[in-house]
Amino acid sequence: MSTAEARRARNKAQDDEDAAQLKLGPEFQNEEQTLTISEVKILLGRRENVTTDNPVYKKTLDYVQAFSRFHEEETVRNVRATLSDRELKPFELAQIANLCPLESDEAKALIPSLTEKDDDELQSLLNEIASYRKFQG
Question: Is the distance from CB of 99 to CB of 111 less than 8 angstroms?
Fold first, then answer.
């Protein structure tokens, strides 16, 4: 494949992807489960007894420890359950849990696919997620 052909293929793939429309590319076609940062932290924490010199593992662990919004396993389960009860795509669910926007306008700006959601319903959901953050240990 020539350089020009590779560039055209890459540009076509980029044109086909649009997060606002939940067109996320072939890596995200399996929508069965999208993990949140907090869930990844819990999964990696269960491997704490495993000694690894893998730099990617260490960087990933550092990242999820720094950016996890929910720290207790029960809270993470409750957040997942609350978000799963709503009509959200897996990507939207994970992004709300990862970003924890406080206002519906903020959520819609950060996650464009939410623009069609009712503001009051979305705000109610965000308030519930915020209460989990507030009352975790």
Answer: yes
pLDDT, one tens digit per residue, over 15-28 is: 566 655 556 566 55
For residue 49 the two structure tokens come to 């007894």
- Residue 131, SS3? helix
Compute the distance between CA of residue 81 and CA of residue 67 in angstroms, rounded to an integer. 20
Tokens 């996320």 -> residue? 24
Read off the pLDDT of residues 62-90 as tens digits, 9 standing for 90 and up. Answer: 999 999 999 999 999 999 999 999 999 99
Find the helix packing angle between 73-84 and 37-45, rounded to 10°: 140
Decide: 70 and 131 in contact? Cβ < 8 Å: no
Q: Is the dihedral of CA 57, 61, 64, 67 positive or negative?
A: negative
Residue 29: alpha-carbon gap to chain centroid: 15
Model-wide pTM > 0.85 = no
CB 41 within 8 A of CB 68: yes
H or E segment and range at residue 93: helix 90-99
- Burial zone of 104 (CB within 10 Å; 0-12 exposed, 13-18 middle, 19+ buried): buried
